[in-house]
Design brief:
The structure holds two protein chains of two kinds.
Chain A lengths: L2 E2 L2 E2 L5 H13 L2 H39 L3 E6 L14 H6 L4 E9 L4 E2 L13 E5 L3 H4 L4 E4 L11 E4 L1 H7 L9 E4 L2 E9 L11 E4 L1 H8 L7 E6 L4 H12 L7 E4 L1 H44 L1 H9 L4 H38 L7 H28 L2 H4 L5
Parallel strand pairs in A: 6-11, 8-10
Antiparallel strand pairs in A: 1-2, 3-12, 3-13, 4-6, 4-12, 5-9, 7-10, 8-11, 9-10
Chain B lengths: L4 E10 L5 E11 L4 E6 L5 H8 L7 E6 L2 E2 L5 H11 E4 L11 H10 L5 H14 L15 H13 L5 E5 L7 H16 L4 E4 L3 H4 L4 E6 L2 E7 L6
Parallel strand pairs in B: 3-8, 3-9, 6-7, 7-8
Antiparallel strand pairs in B: 1-2, 1-4, 4-5, 9-10
The chains are: A alpha+beta, B alpha/beta.
Bound molecules: adenosine-5'-diphosphate and magnesium ion.
């Protein structure tokens, strides 16, 4: 053995430190498992919350990307006197002239109601907004047809109508096989198409679209657009956005409202972040409770193992060896819980995300943080019991009472 | 040759009102290879003497030399090193770790010397052989009788070949037959060269030991060398 200044030194191998810790845990298996469970639950909750929210966010962002974040909407807002303002007739053309604008299409609300038959009173509109639309609207919104086709140059003056998904449902029209017709304030229109839901523009799901020409002719609709939808080059969205109000209405830019429909969806992801923080906090509380449990169990263990501590001191353990042994035991206990918790949290995330049809996305940092948190909790929880064990008077500890 | 142990005017007081003087001016020499019995009534200071000699407790005044080195004022880490290398303990309650096999219990006697696990188990198996338990190495304490447990504890004390083995009432928890066997074992180990101090209040035990110290109220009242008792 090593000798310094003619004096033998007490030393313990690191492997023996781990061995003594493991041995302490193995000799009290039920207690070890129950205590580790507390930590495992806390860590699993945190990993699960992080994993699920990050998977859901990744799925949502992927979907938003898919729908395109380059769709903008220009609407007439209100004048400074509070009345409804109007966009100038030239607004769509002006907007199309902005170079990064790739597509634009106007819609205008039509003062008419749509009904399944002429027997239903016109007051019962079913909340369906009759809307004049340019044929380019479909492409600009990247909408898809569930049935039939959208309006085109040939139908803009014809009594043809395309229904949004909700509008079709409310009118009880599910397919076009019977050649369904609807009744608009004294005029029958052929239903030529039904749209699939428009995720970025859910308000348009309640619309029924007709051509501008027929709208002007039958319902006296003005050429002023209610809303102009446009797609820009993906890298120039903000630049175009800042130009839109002045371009659409150079006389009164402050009466123009510009919005980005994908923002609403992104806001949903941000709302999730608050919930995530709350759940994370709950997980942290569970972890702290788990840590208190470990400290408690370790203090009991120190008291129970008084004679073991005394014997180890008699066999040559320094105070620091005793402290190290109990600290190691506490950390191993917590890590057992931590690793179990990480595995559990990852499994829960995987199952949940797969069920939702999301890609599983668990941040590696979360896994590392889970294990790291267990380490820190174990070290903190073990500190007091370890110091207490180290301070025990060896002469008293080797005697059964006193 | 320097004695293994040399005490001069050692006192130990425990604080209290009035303070308890558990050792009162104890002076004593133990040479290498001796087997010494310490007798005395309960409360006479036998355990205190053993703790002070074994560096588990510090004397209040006086000098203690272990193999010539004054240990009264050494820091804890030095004392720990001495205990690990030079002192072996045997206790009345055996104090084996319940979760460890006999051989692993014996091996804890070498843990604080930094000996590798493999070498420890090897040395422990040999020590178990010496105490007659070579075939019980993998048994846990609860699978062993009281006498066997004390043999494991003795093996743990001697596995590191210490300068001195200190046994506090090693037969105190055993019946008289088993007690005889354990004393026989300690006598054997002594004839093989081990220096041993045995505390006992049992005169049948003390009568078998070649040198007897008697403590009364923390003072040595007799120190007799008896020729020819060791078998
Ligand atoms: N830690 C302690 N605190 C106070 N008094 C003690 C302590 N240990 C022992 N004593 C006292 O010292 C005296 C000697 O005790 P001890 O050495 O245990 O005697 P023995 O082992 O001979 O029975 C007794 O009076 C006992 O009460
Ligand atoms: Mg005693």
């Amino acid at each position: 053995m090593r000798v310094r200044n003619g004096c033998p030194r007490s030393r313990m191998r690191r492997t023996d430190l781990l061995r003594s810790g493991a041995q302490g845990l193995l000799s009290r298996r039920a207690r070890t498992l129950l205590t580790a469970l507390g930590i495992a639950i806390g860590i699993a909750a945190m990993i699960g919350v992080l994993g699920i929210s990050s998977s859901s966010k990744a799925a949502l962002l992927a979907r938003i990307d898919d729908l395109g974040t380059n769709l903008l909407a220009v609407q007439a807002g209100q004048s400074i006197f509070g009345d409804d303002a109007k966009l100038p007739e030239a607004a769509p053309a002006m907007i199309r002239h902005i170079p990064p604008v790739e597509q634009a299409a106007a819609v205008s609300s039509v003062d008419a109601s749509v009904r399944r038959t002429d027997l239903i009173p016109s007051s019962e509109t079913g909340g369906i907004a009759v809307t004049a639309a340019e044929p380019e609207v479909l492409d600009t919104l990247q909408g898809a047809m569930d049935e039939g086709r959208f309006l085109d140059e040939a139908t803009t003056a014809a009594p043809a109508i395309v229904l949004g998904s909700v509008a079709a449902e409310r009118l009880g029209i599910t397919d076009l096989r019977q050649g369904p017709m609807v009744y608009l304030d004294g005029h029958w229109f052929n239903v030529i198409g039904i749209l699939e839901p428009l995720p970025l523009n859910p308000d348009l799901d309640r619309a029924a679209f007709i051509g501008y020409d027929v709208a002007k002719q039958l319902f006296d609709t003005k050429a002023n657009a209610t809303t102009i939808y446009l797609r820009t080059h993906p890298d120039q969205v903000e630049g175009v956005r800042s130009l839109l109000a002045r371009t659409a209405n150079p006389q009164a830019p402050n009466e123009v409202q510009v919005s980005r429909p994908s923002d609403a969806l992104e806001a949903k992801a941000a709302v999730d972040a608050n919930l995530t923080r709350l759940l994370l906090g709950l997980g942290a509380v569970a972890l702290i409770v788990g840590g208190v449990g470990i400290a408690n169990v370790m203090v009991i263990s120190v008291l129970e193992r008084r004679s073991e501590i005394g014997v180890r001191r008699a066999l040559g353990a320094k105070r620091s060896h005793i402290a190290g042994q109990f600290l190691t035991e506490s950390i191993m206990l917590s890590m057992l819980g931590g690793v179990t918790g990480v595995a559990l949290g990852a499994a829960v995330t995987r199952i949940y995300a797969t069920r939702q049809g999301w890609l599983v996305n668990i941040p590696t940092e979360a896994l590392a943080a889970g294990v790291g948190a267990a380490l820190v909790v174990g070290a903190l929880a073990g500190l007091y019991p370890a110091v207490r064990a180290a301070r025990m008077d060896p002469a008293e500890a080797v005697y059964p009472t006193g | 040759m320097t004695p293994v142990l040399e005490l001069s005017a050692v006192t130990k007081e425990f604080p209290g009102n009035p303070p308890v003087r558990a050792l009162d001016g104890v002076s004593l020499r133990i040479e290498s290879g001796e087997l010494v019995g310490v007798v005395g009534a309960s409360g006479s200071g036998k355990s205190t003497l053993l703790n002070v000699v074994g560096t588990l407790a510090r004397p209040t005044t006086g000098e203690i030399r272990l193999e010539g080195r004054d240990i009264a004022k050494e820091p804890d880490r030095v004392l720990a090193g001495l205990r690990a290398a030079r002192i072996g303990f045997v206790f009345q309650q055996f104090h084996l770790v319940a979760g460890l096999s006999a051989v692993d219990n014996v091996a804890t006697g070498l843990v604080y010397r930094g000996v590798s696990h493999r070498k420890r188990r090897h040395a422990s198996a040999e020590a178990l052989d010496r105490v007659g338990l070579g075939n019980r190495g993998e048994h846990r304490p609860n699978q062993l009788s009281g006498g066997e447990r004390q043999r494991v504890a003795i093996a743990r004390a001697l596995v590191g070949d210490p300068a001195i083995i200190l046994a506090d009432e090693p037969t105190g928890s055993l019946d008289s037959r088993t007690s005889d066997e354990i004393i026989g074992l300690l006598l054997d180990l002594n004839t093989q060269g081990a220096t041993i101090v045995i505390i006992t209040h049992d005169h049948a035990v003390a009568d078998r030991l070649p040198r007897r110290l008697e403590l009364v109220d923390g003072r040595i009242v007799s120190d007799r060398q008896v020729a020819g008792v060791a078998s």
